[in-house]
Amino acid sequence: MTDTDLRHRARQIRMETLRIIHGSTGGHPGGALSIADILAVLYFSEMRIDPSQPHWSDRDRLVLSKGHGCASLYAALGLRGFFDCAEFDRFRRLDGLLQGHPSVSIPGIDAPSGSLGMGLSQGLGMALGGRYAGKNFRTRVILGDGDMQEGCTWEAIMAAGHHRVASLCAILDANGLQADGRVCDTMDYAPVREKIEAFRWNVIETDGHDCDSLVGAFHLANDCGDKPTLIVARTVKGKGVSFMEDQAHWHGTAKISVDELQLAYAEIGTFSVL
Amino acid sequence: MVRRYPRHHWGETTRGMNDMMQNFDYFPPGQDVSMREGFGRALVALGRTRSDFYLFDADVAGGTGAKPFSQAFPERTLQFGIAEQNLMAAAAGFADTGLIPLIAGFASFTVMRAHEQLRTAVCYGARNVKICCSHVGLDTGPDGATAQMLEDLVTCRAIPGLTVVVPACANEIQPLLAAILDDPGPVYMRIGRSPSPVIYEKPGPIRIGKGNILRNGDDLTLMACGTRVAAALKASEILAAQGVSARVVNMRSIKPLDHALIQQCCRDTGAIVTVEDHTALGGLGGAVAESVVQGSPVPMEIVAVRDSFGRSGEHSELFGAYGIDVADIVAAALKVQRRKRA
Description:
The complex is a heterodimer. In chain A, 39% of the residues lie in helices and 12% in strands. Chain A is α/β, with parallel strands linked by helices. In chain A, strands 1-2-3-7-6 form a five-stranded parallel beta sheet, with helices on both faces. A two-stranded antiparallel sheet of chain A has the order 4-5. In chain A, α1 crosses α4 and α3 (36-46) packs across α9. The longest helix of chain A has 20 residues, at 3-22. In chain B, the strands form three sheets. In chain B, strands 3-2-4-5-7-6-12 form a seven-stranded mixed beta sheet, sandwiched between helices. Chain B has a five-stranded mixed beta sheet with strand order 9-11-10-13-14, sandwiched between helices. A two-stranded antiparallel ribbon of chain B has the order 1-8. The interface between A and B is medium-sized, with 34 and 28 residues.
């Protein structure tokens, strides 16, 4: 898939993300929009998946450790055909499939999340399981800034480096904001490269909104010898919607009004596929 | 959302189980053997007959009894260092590939420290993970309160989808572990540390969810788990000498609980005493009480640790100091008998 196609997919994911959250009592638009390009590259280019067999044992795995950003993951899964896109309108509702945070009851969701700090460990376990089961699938874990403040994440970083789990690739959505403000003011985990490399990981830094660069980073990660890889994706929270960009206010369970939705759609500048 | 796991029916698996049981190597009766030793022997025996489970260790194999397995099967042992939260969540991910991770740890550091990973990554994730812990209750002894896990039954049985079992002696662990590995869902097995009497000479196949009547009696029922089953058997002998006929039940399955057996004991004996090396809040006593009051209630006493932390001491001393020894069971039995007659 060309860069133009992937950018188109990313726009679709953004549109559907906003639709999903607009139709609900809220969601986490900021952190969902910041990973839209990463999800477009993974689900429409890089991942070995079969939407008709969500439990296919040889599939590539994806764990969204920052589970609150699930609206865009649901958008990607729906657009990829894992479930009926009509579910987009029942997000966080009793009669809907799409839970407020990822649940394995949803086709295409490989791990439960929503409690930060557990995703990398689960991905590590999947990658180790693949090693012992003699399978060659790859496991990706999308981490948020908040995941880097959880101790369990660092336990997993230590173990993945120690066990040389090269089939594991973490993508850090480094948007620099968390619920109540800037990461650097709340609990700074920088410098990330030096810390992660010290744990025997390969580290690649890239623009998290440039699909071409992301594809290149994933290809480098696939061929990194015997080390796990962290792709530090420099992103903007709320990317693609000017009034949401780099605003901590749009982290939490924000409601999107009709006016805001129309303005956002106009800015993203494409059409709804549905 | 609660994931319901299909349970095996013994009609389908008894033949495999019988083959497997030929490899079991039981300790002779009449001696005290620690359950962790029985656990190590069970791991090795089952490791020889099935290759689908992997030991997850946090540098405690020497303490949990799992060392014989890690020595016999180093290629099936995964070391996570002293990082139990990562170990628990990684086990959840590992299970996604169809292999069975078997965590062996100290209860406090495993099911308590990594409780959220157990709840969310393992159980909400519907992962087939087996968690087997030593260092439970006052049985832990001189190490003191930090390692004496007195709250694991109540916290674990509250998690949807998690099966909770407690073996009563070293020999019981081999068929129980076989049943656990055959179960398709997550299971927590609470194992002891200190030497404890061998109760079963050659236990048959064990069905999770069922209790086992060890001694018949008409006046009351002593329902115990873990090391307290042997204590209840001793108490029943003392009671017999006093003319009280006590039934003794090994309630090895805390969840699912054997409601039918509990109701039968209520009908047959009219009084219940539960006994456990665990807090009195919500453990075996709580579980049995929930069942009793929803049937035809009978007088009941709960012999357990009264809402407190443990302390250092020999396990045999601690049982008496905290009111869960043989004399305490006898006293509770006599009390419940008086209440039954009143």
